[in-house]
Amino acid sequence: MTVYLLCFLLFLVGFYGVLTKRDLVKIILSLTIMGYAVNLFLILFAYRDQALFPILKEGVNMEAMVDPLPQALVLTSIVIELGTTALLVTIALKLFQKYKTFDITKIRRLSG
Fold it and tell me: pTM here?
């Protein structure tokens, strides 16, 4: 139970960073932390104590295996997060080239 609470606390740290920070780089890092927290939660949700690898063999009980679906979802999520992070970094660099700042309050003020 404590591991789930720590995972939720990690998500809240990322959420706090997204809501309170003004620097685009810190916002992108906070979004990444939130993604890692969700991935960790999915892996923890699928964990079973004393379970076997999800490889079918004769004579092995399927109830004693770990569910492979959350692991596949996390791998897919990591790839999607990588693409999203690359897109956000590209947008942040373009905004920096145009406005010479990463501060979102200054960027909003400079509209044009």
Answer: 0.84
